[in-house]
Amino acid sequence: MDAAIFGLIVADLIAEPIDLRNPPAAGGLQLIRSISLTTGGNVCNTGVAMRKLGMNVAAAGLVGQDVLGQAVLERLSAQGLDTSAVFRTDQAQTSATVVAVESAGERTFFHTAGATTLLDAEAFRRCFDVFRSCAIVQIGYFGLLPSLTPHLPKLLSELRKLAPQTHIALDTVNPPAPMEQLLPILPYLDIFAPSRTEAAALSGQTEPAQMVAFFRQHMPRGLIGIKLDAEGCYLDDARNAIFVPSYKIQVVDTTGAGDTWFGGLLTALRRKMPLEQAGRFANRAAADCCTALGASAGVRDFDQTLARI
Fold it and tell me: Which end of the chain is more exposed for a tag (fewer CB within 10 A), N or C?
């Protein structure tokens, strides 16, 4: 298996276009173009993107015993993901988000954590059999896993001993959890790639090189990336550092772009692309994501993506 993606499994209700600055009057009605049910969270967004890019991917996490959980599982299976490490619980509803998409493509989220709050050390260990068979395990998001985060250093130490060949990646969210919780996790990571906003909140720095230097004090090896939104990305593998510009597109919807970027990066690394090419590939996948409504519809296959970098 190329990768297992552990963490948030979310049912996304996407409504567009929504003018949040001019809502209807109380009790009123406003017609919009579309409302659709799709999947979200790093497990779905990154996992589906990697699957479309040709990777063999396992989803890992929790969903509720409800219609949303069933719909998400069906979607993941239909996309070709292994769902044997997605467990169902009757203790909470499936994590869900209302995504309000403005006409320019920017989105605002209304989220209920649901089953995500039950992701703890026991839930993580239940996935070890799948993790040990994977080249990469991505965990997300740091900032939305309150029951798991304090236990991650010990869990990652156990995973390292069980599967020393597996590379561990961590994804973040805005706002992230406190830096004090990240410090003991960083030494176990092979890939860490926050956004500029998240990296600034964690490091107190403003420039990508300074952010990387701050994280390098605690993560001496591996790849550190800073997602720079519309500007591109900054990558540092402890030997070389490079800025990779973005691709200019007509934005339809930015939902899932950061997760797709991460999926593109993991795919490129798995394909052993050089650092600059890996950044260009990740940027291209993220740009394509923004050309269609939803988190994954715009993502193309590997050959199409590679041909356009």
Answer: N
